[in-house]
Design a protein that fits this description.
The chain is an alpha/beta fold and 269 residues long. It has eight helices and 13 strands.
């Protein structure tokens, strides 16, 4: 997609977001925080979706994030992809990421893209970018790079957030070799419509929290215009996997939509 005007948070929306976050931080402490954190961690799953390529927030404290990173590190993945929304409403929250990020290491690297909450915290993403880069995380914002394992190549790329940033899919794919498999990191799943047309093989996304509250298959909020709430989707030869994420928004509650650390296994078909 070509660059579009950024949909920046208004002063009112940012003030409301930060006000709610401040209230949440005040309530979410001590025994209440420990009880909720234990329940969310107990329900969190490690999933292992296998995908074959046809080509050759306020309720998430520093120790919660540390536990997630410890779980990822135990799996010893070849590649780690962080899909955005690592902070909630305040720029200084990026400093709380460093201890956990220090545990993440992978032979092919650790990569990230921004989500809408990074922009809710700050227009410039200065502290977020610094925290990630100083921890060895490479940010793929409208850019890509070639990863090689043995004799196999993969074009890994990422875009800016669809809602708050300026996603440029063409720039992200620039440099990709013909017939080279391409994996796209996009915080928002709705970019998949365009990504499929552009020949992306696989898009990895989040943003939706899997619905967070799902009652008999129905979720009051899906955060996707096209129904990409969670799981595996296909379109025009391309594939999309939407992870449910590890945190919550608005309320420290998940019903019928457990948190998820997705270990995606890529193969050839």
């Amino acid at each position: 997609m070509g660059s579009s005007a950024k949909k920046r948070p208004t002063r009112l929306s940012r003030a409301l977001s930060r006000g709610l976050a401040a209230v949440a931080h005040g309530v979410y402490r001590g025994p209440v925080r420990r009880a909720i954190a234990e329940r969310l961690a107990r329900d969190r799953r490690v999933t292992r979706p296998r995908i074959e390529l046809a080509r050759g927030g306020p309720y998430f404290a520093e120790d919660d994030w540390l536990r997630v990173c410890e779980a990822v590190a135990r799996e010893a993945p070849d590649l780690v992809c962080l899909g955005g929304d690592l902070v909630n409403a305040f720029e200084h929250e990026a400093r709380l990421l460093r201890k956990g990020l220090g545990l993440l290491a992978a032979p092919l690297g650790v990569f990230a893209v921004p989500g809408n909450h990074e922009y809710q915290a700050s227009d410039e993403l200065r502290l977020w970018r610094a925290a990630l880069e100083q921890s060895g995380v490479e940010i793929l914002c409208n850019r890509g790079r070639r990863l090689t394992r043995g004799e196999a190549d993969l074009w890994l790329c990422g875009v800016d957030d669809l809602r708050r940033g300026e996603p440029d899919l063409a720039a992200a794919l620039d440099g990709r070799a013909p017939h080279e498999p391409a994996v796209l990191l996009s915080h928002h799943p709705d970019l998949f419509i365009e990504a499929a047309r552009a020949g992306v093989d696989l898009q990895l996304s989040g943003h939706t929290h899997g619905g967070q509250v799902v009652l008999r298959g129905w979720a009051p909020m899906t955060h996707s215009r096209f129904g990409f709430r969670a799981g595996h989707f296909r379109r025009e030869g391309a594939q999309l996997y939407v992870g449910s994420g590890v945190g919550t928004t608005f309320l420290p509650l998940r019903i019928g939509a457990p948190g998820e650390i997705a270990l995606v296994e890529l193969g050839r078909c």
